[in-house]
Structure formats: C-alpha cells, structure tokens
Design goal:
The protein is α/β, with parallel strands linked by helices. It is 48% helix and 12% strand. It is elongated and about 65 Å long. Bound molecules: guanosine-5'-diphosphate and magnesium ion (MG).
C-alpha cells in the first residue's frame, strides 16, 4: 500500500531549519577536509546538538575515530558518506506502513493520541486529506470532548476536506463518542474511521485510563480495531517528546485493552519548526515505535511518510542541490 508518497522538495524544505542550523555546518566542516581528532570531536558535538541522541552519536563517532586512528579513513567526505549510510540503515524496512483492516472488512480504525497542542487535529486533517485523495471514504470521531473548541476545530477541517464528523456533548464521555463513531462507520461502510482524542498528559493516570477505555470500546465494536494507534509528538519539544513516547507506549499497552498492543506508530509533527530534526533518530534510540509520518507544515498537504533514505538525503542535502 502506498497511500503516502515522499515529495522530496517538500521534505527537504521541511528540514530547512535542521539543515541550516546544524547539518550544513557538518557538511562544510567535513567536505574536502582531512580528518583529525579535533574535527571528529567537533562532529560529535554537532550531532548531539541536532538531538541525534547519545547512543547513535557515540556509535557513529566511535567508528569514525577508530577507522581514522587505524588509517582506514582519512577524508571528511568518507566520514560523511559513512554517516549517511549508517543512518539510513537504522530503520528496518518493516512496519512503517499504516496497519489496515483485513481486506473486505472495513473500517480501518486509527486512534490518534498525544498531549494537548502537539498537533493531533492538524495531523488528522493531513491523514484525512491523503486518504481522500486516494478515493477512500473517511469518517472522523471527535472524542476530544474536554477542550472547548476542539470539536469545532475538527469540524472546520472536516468541512474543508468534505468528510463527516461524529461528535458528542462537550464534557461528555469520550468513550461514548467512540462507540457512536464505530457504529456509524460500520453502518455507512466507510474505509477509515479516525478518532481524535483529548490531549492526555502522559503523567495523568485517569487520562491514560480514559485512553484504555476508548480502546476497549473500539475493540468490542470492531474486532481487531484499533488497527493503528498513532501517537502524535511535537518535534519542537525535544527531550520531552522522547519521554512522552516512552510513557505512552508503556501505558497504552497495559490492561490488554484492544489486544494489548501499545502505540503502533508515531506521527512526528512540526519537524519544520525545529532545528533538531535529529530527534527522529533519538526516538529510534529510546523506543521501538516506528515513526510512520512526519508533519512539515500547517496545511493538510504538509504530510510525508517517514522514509529513512529520503529523510537522511534531505537532511544532508546541499543547499542548492
Ligand atoms: N509548523 C507546523 N505547525 C504545526 C504542525 N502540525 C500542527 N501544527 C500547529 O500546531 C498547533 C496545534 O495543533 P493542533 O492540531 O490543534 O494540536 P492538538 O491540540 O494536538 O490537536 C496549531 O497551531 C497547528 O497549526 C506542523 O507539522 N508544522
Ligand atoms: Mg485537537
């Protein structure tokens, strides 16, 4: 399935800030230069400051240092090529696709979760837009009943995108909205049901239980659902995003609701708003949850599938390349 396609220019543009702040520095530091100990230490510092993460940075730099000392690597260009190749290999090919309902038994249910303000509703609009472009029918469920204006925000997007929303009372039970949305999705035979949930603080236990409850309702209504639990993270929040990934994964897999699977994928929003695009690599270091999508702007078109090859190329691309 390839609903989502990389558009390289958009991806590259989305990573402008990361590239300008850190990576173009690394490029110009290495290209055409001879390696020495000082250059290698500087490389290490810059990788860390792009939030690449300690583990991967250490692995890359240790290898370059060892090869340099053994006389096997002399030029900065070689170090750059080595890093790109290694980074591309970090992510196994499996499991970046959207998990779908079995052939012939729609709907595919996507539960979208994450802390307030990270970009959940916007990311849903993006998913919705791409699916609509592929002639898929989509229904939205507004399970964020806590925040005033949340339902309205989803409705505004849905009107623009031409999809319907199932909603409940403000302050009502989100699980009840999930129930109604599942019933409506089945009755209408839509291909996809996307549920927007309230911004749950990962440290607030009752809110986590709420998520578990929604999962339970969904799985009883539609066996095998939710097929995908997408955690939206805000790339601009750095280390905080990493902690959220760990906490959500733990909490969502407790109690066994919905088959006991935790978060099945990450939607990393606002990559365009940060110079620390290396966070994608750090996420890989601390959790086994695959990043499936990245957000590179505020409009419904600003979505990209996460593809390691394109990502690394875009991150290390020459400014005019
Ligand atoms: N630059 C940028 N802004 C984004 C992106 N995704 C969301 N936003 C903005 O982040 C803010 C919060 O988004 P929203 O979807 O309401 O977050 P929610 O509270 O998690 O539903 C809004 O101003 C969005 O326009 C993105 O990929 N890039
Ligand atoms: Mg929202």
């Amino acid at each position: 399935m390839a609903f989502f396609k990389t558009i390289f220019s958009k991806l590259k543009h989305g990573l402008d800030r990361t590239r300008e702040a850190v990576v173009s520095g690394i490029r110009s530091m290495l290209l055409g230069k001879r390696l020495d100990e000082q250059l290698i230490s500087e490389l290490e510092r810059r990788l860390l400051s792009a939030d690449v993460g300690v583990k991967t940075t250490r692995r890359l730099v240790d290898h370059i240092r060892a090869d340099f000392r053994a006389g096997k690597m002399e030029r900065g260009d070689q170090a750059l090529e080595y890093m790109k190749a290694e980074l591309k290999r970090l992510w196994p090919p499996a499991d970046r696709e959207l998990h779908l309902a079995p052939e012939g038994s729609p709907p595919t249910v996507i539960l979208v979760t994450g802390v307030n303000g990270v970009g959940k509703t916007t990311s849903i609009a993006k998913l919705c837009r791409t699916l609509r472009d592929q002639d898929k029918t989509v229904l939205l469920g507004a399970c964020d009943t806590f925040r005033a204006g949340a339902v309205r925000q989803l409705e505004i997007w849905s009107e623009r995108l031409g999809v319907e929303v199932v909603k409940g009372q403000q302050g009502g039970d989100p699980a009840a909205v999930a129930f109604d949305a599942c019933a409506a999705a089945k009755a209408r035979g839509v291909d996809f049901l996307i549920l927007d949930t309230a911004g749950r603080l990962h440290t607030q236990d009752p809110l986590m239980r709420q998520l578990t409850k929604i999962r339970g309702v969904v799985s009883r209504q539609i066996p095998g659902a939710p097929h995908e639990v997408l955690l939206v993270l805000d790339a601009t929040s750095g280390q905080n995003a990493l902690r959220q990934a760990e906490e959500f994964d733990k909490a969502a897999s407790q109690n066994g609701a919905g088959g006991g699977r935790g978060v099945t994928g990450i939607f990393l929003a606002k990559l365009d708003g940060t110079a620390k695009g290396g966070i994608v690599i750090a996420i890989k270091d601390v959790t086994s949850i695959p990043v499936k999508f990245i957000g590179v702007g505020e409009t419904p078109e600003d979505i990209q599938p996460f593809d390691p090859e394109s990502f690394v190329e875009a991150m290390f691309a020459a400014e005019n390349g």
